[in-house]
Write a structure and sequence with these properties.
Layout lengths: L4 H12 L4 E4 L1 H7 L8 E4 L3 H7 L3 E2 L6 E5 L9 E6 L1 E3 L11 E3 L3 H6 L9 E4 L12 E4 L2 E4 L4 H7 L1 E2 L5 H7 L2 H13 L2 E2 L1 H9 L9 H12 L4 H11 L1 H5 L1 H4 L14 H14 L4 H9 L4 H4 L1 E3 L2 E3 L3 H15 L4 H13 L11 H11 L4 H13 L8 H15 L12 H8 L5 H16 L6 H11 L4 H27 L2
Parallel strand pairs: 2-5, 11-12
Antiparallel strand pairs: 1-2, 1-8, 3-4, 4-5, 6-7, 8-10, 9-10, 13-14
């Protein structure tokens, strides 16, 4: 193992100037695990001013001793390397950042302030000639001198997340570490050692003081891991879930109907796990996690079973509210909410008409249809009793592609508002929109009617009708189809 050239050049320059310097933190952890680090950090005895003097291409915009050095590299992860002076942190009044920092001259004191033992390992290159280790906390691995005063290598080999020193103190200093422990356990497929896990449970309420944006970022990172189900179970086990996602917590222990063998919560996180397994994009993963959160609030007994009518509508509202609370971007919130709202579409070969499918495309939007199929696959796999649906889904995608070529909005009609004004001598107003909506209702039932001459003839027949009546014609056609779909859903799925 070798440090990347830009990192080693920084360390070598610091050493040549008389300072100690090591690579440290998550980059070292990942390197030792044979993973590719996402960024690189260096710790040193040099002060921020001394670092900037050595590296003119740098900037210092904080009060915590971290200077960002700009390096020449084609690798984006090596273009900005953070170099931080050895430091000791003081009290954390905001549960996130130290009130003040004190620079120190010893590496072990700097490592002692870090969150977990696997992140409290420092390394530097041995150099051209191998050297003997100084003490029990040092070891030589390949071409690296490894400084490990808190047993991080042992925990790396055992697959354990353990807080450095007193776990309660570590979480009191920075409450975001509670979520970071969960995310690392999922990301690395590690376990959390008992004392650290117990401290997480005891300190869980401190997480409420962490900014929504930082919580949101950890949720995103967790959703993008290979083992998000494991992370979600840890959130529930430690009580953190109730603090950050109470809507998802509502599904814990809530049984479903005969089409599911898992509780609502277990079904949601298993759906997320399958979305991760299939490497679906973030918005589909979050939709898989949230798609059934409306079920606990809509659960009603029906004979020997239960119904969850309108849980898709209730769940979409809950999803939108929680994502806004956690300051997710507007675009991502809209994407996820839209998928949750429409995840209950029904399709059975030979029973759903082409007109019905065109109306589904109109509601969902052609651009979102593939994502809706992905969500359906994940949630069916996550039900515990997945049905053999590959043919149906393939047939649905075929029919959807065919139907997408037919009009599903007034903008796809063979005539537009300008045509109506020119041919029928109409003035701008609600009548034009009403006529177009009424024509669209007919075309949705029969795409062959999307012919300019036919539509102009029908428009002449409709022009004397009341605009409100014309609008109602279009809406009635769409509502009738929606009711048919809802009835099919209720009879087939009892949801």
């Amino acid at each position: 193992m070798h440090l990347p050239t830009p990192v080693q050049q920084i360390i070598t320059s610091l050493q040549a100037a008389g300072f100690d310097a090591y690579a440290v933190g998550g980059c070292v952890r990942d390197m030792l695990l044979k993973k590719v680090p996402k960024d690189w950090d260096v710790t040193t005895t040099a002060s921020p001013a001394e670092i900037q003097k050595l590296f003119p291409k740098s900037f210092y915009t904080n009060t915590f001793g971290t200077v960002t050095v700009l390096a020449e590299s084609t690798d984006p992860t090596l273009q900005k390397i953070e170099v931080t002076t050895y430091r000791i942190d003081s009290q954390y009044s905001d549960q996130r950042h130290p009130d003040t920092v004190t620079f120190t001259s010893t590496l072990e004191e700097d490592l002692s302030r870090r969150d977990f033992t696997i992140n409290a390992i420092a390394v530097q290159e041995v150099g051209k000639q191998a050297r003997a280790t100084k003490n029990k906390n040092e070891a030589v691995i390949d071409d690296l001198i490894v400084i490990d005063p808190f047993g991080g290598m042992k925990d790396l080999n055992a697959g354990v997340i353990r807080a450095v020193g007193d776990p309660n103190q570590r979480f009191q200093e920075d409450a975001l570490r509670l979520l970071r422990a969960v995310r690392l356990a999922a990301q690395l497929d590690f376990t959390i050692e008992p004392a650290t896990l117990q401290a997480m449970q005891a300190q869980r309420q401190r997480l409420a003081k962490v900014s929504a944006e930082r919580v949101q970022q950890e949720i995103i990172k967790l959703a993008l891991t290979d083992e998000p189900e494991k992370g979600c179970n840890l959130l529930e086990q430690t009580g953190l879930l109730a603090v950050i996602l109470p809507e998802l917590q509502e599904g814990v222990g809530v049984g479903q109907n005969k089409h599911h063998i898992y509780t609502v919560f277990d079904h949601c996180i298993k759906s997320l796990q399958f979305a991760s397994q299939y490497d679906y994009p973030l918005h589909v993963r979050l939709a898989a996690l949230f798609h059934d959160i409306g079920k606990p609030r809509t659960k009603r007994p029906q004979g020997n079973d239960f119904t969850f009518y309108a849980h898709d509508i209730v769940g979409a509202r809950m999803t939108e509210k929680l994502m806004k609370r956690l300051q997710f971007s507007t675009d991502l919130t809209n994407q996820v909410t839209h998928l949750v709202r429409h995840h209950m579409f029904y399709y059975d070969v030979g029973k759903v008409t082409e007109a019905g499918l065109r109306r589904l495309l109109r509601r969902v939007g052609p651009a979102n249809f593939d994502d809706l199929i992905k969500l359906r696959i994940a949630e069916r796999k996550g039900s515990g009793v997945p049905k053999a649906e590959p043919y149906r889904l393939r047939h649905l995608q075929f029919m959807a592609e065919k139907a997408a070529q037919q009009p599903i909005s007034t903008s796809q009609l063979a005539i537009n508002g300008s045509d109506l004004m020119q041919e029928l001598q109409l003035t701008p107003g609600p009548r034009i929109g009403g006529i177009l909506n009424a024509l669209l209702a007919e075309v949705l039932d029969n795409p062959l009617k999307n012919d300019r001459e036919h539509l102009l003839t029908r428009a002449k027949e409709l022009q004397d009708k009341d605009p409100a009546e014309l609008k109602a014609m279009g809406e009635q056609a769409r509502d009738d189809e929606q009711r048919k779909q809802d009835e099919l859903i209720k009879r087939k799925y009892h949801v």
